[in-house]
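Supplementary Methods, section 5.1.

A reviewer requested that the exact input to the structure prediction be made available. We therefore reproduce it here, unchanged from the version used in the analyses.
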Amino acid sequence: MINILLVTHGKMAEGMYSSVGMLIGKAENFDFVCFDKDMGQDELKEELDKRLADVSDGKQYLIMCDIKGGTPFNVASRYSFKNDNAAVFYGVNLPILIEAIISREGKSLGQLAEYLEGVSGTTIGLSEI
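The structure derived from this sequence is encoded token-by-token as follows.
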């Protein structure tokens, strides 16, 4: 099963992790890292090194970040550049996170990433009055 690691600015990841538990229950192989204002890039890298230590052992990770070009995205992207067992998805929101969790079974990392990119546009919209 593909592991999902949520990495965002501030406490967003913690809040989304909690919301996932409320909406679909405890998800296996799902964790989060918060990039707090008191952390530096090196500290975030150390935290990701701990969480992704087994990526070189063949475990696959989808790292979901909030903002393309932000520190969580930039640090996480180094893992996907170095290892085919990691992919980075940016622009995460709660619906796409839940979709990733419930849709990962039976998919390769590449298939899951492509699928999520394809359906991501359906997770936002403007309600008609």
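The domain at 2-122 is CATH 3.40.50.510 (Rossmann fold). These observations are discussed further in the main text.
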